[in-house]
Amino acid sequence: MTALRIARHDGEPEIEADGGRAPAAPLAAAPSGGVNARPARRGQLTIRGLRKSFGGTVVYDGFDLDLPLGSFVSVFGPNGCGKSTLINMISGLMPRDGGEVLYDGQSIRDTRISYVFQNYREALFPWLRAIDNIHYPLKIKGMPKKARTARVEQLIADFGIKIDLNAYPYQLSGGQQQAVSILRALAPEPEVLFLDEPFSALDYEMTLLMREKLQAIFQKTGTTMMLVSHDLEEAVQMADHVLLLTRRPTRVAALVDNPLPRPRDAATLIGADFVALRSQCLEIFQREARVETL
């Protein structure tokens, strides 16, 4: 299920994700103001000496990276290069074999983080209505009902997708379920939101709509967002910076800036500037993904 900063009934904080649990820092209750009530953290996301292996396969070995907080970063690279592994480690969802991750000089445990997974069918509590799923992280932290209702109503209005909030997840379309997952992740006003291929299971029409809605939330809140995508069009459309990775052991192939104005809708995708930028990223990707043959 979507990773949220919550606490068990015995008071021990944890992350919940797809049925598994890992230690996490407690999340302070969100204020009752609008979506932009808490200023976004600025500064740098600093990664130094990141290491990770699975069995005898080295994925990361001394990986370094600096990214500006308050920006939208897309992660793209060859199959198996460790895109999801990267965000799982820097979000605290997966242990690192070595290295350091700092958000504006603060540890992961001191940073408010939310996570949206690809599999929306398993991301929501099936026994709770959509509205109760969105309320959940605020309720578990003890936010008064009036305050959390105001927070959730404002968030839903800002996101702007029509959903029967009294329906259970199985009664909603895939796009609506993923929208609820995103809203639940945004409800505690995270400083950093990680999204692991959140639209890959949706049809193209819904994908385009969800891209626009997520951009609108990003523009309004300034929340740092990091998106893993297997779709280069999507990666370029969404990002301020496209992080292109190499094959294993994974390094940074390039960090390509996207200066195109927002919002970037479907019409943006056929513009000359967008096509040129996508072509630049594609050229880098093809170079890095190329497999030498004998």
From TrEMBL:
Native organism is Futiania mangrovi
Q: What are the boundaries of the region Disordered?
A: 1-37
Low complexity: bias regions: 20-34
The record's comment on protein family reads: Belongs to the ABC transporter superfamily.
Q: What is the lineage of its organism?
A: Bacteria, Pseudomonadati, Pseudomonadota, Alphaproteobacteria, Futianiales
Q: Which domain of life is it from?
A: Bacteria
Q: Where is the ABC transporter domain?
A: 45-272
Among its keywords, does the record have Nucleotide-binding? Answer: yes
Q: Name one GO molecular function term.
A: ATP binding
Q: What is this protein called?
A: ABC transporter ATP-binding protein
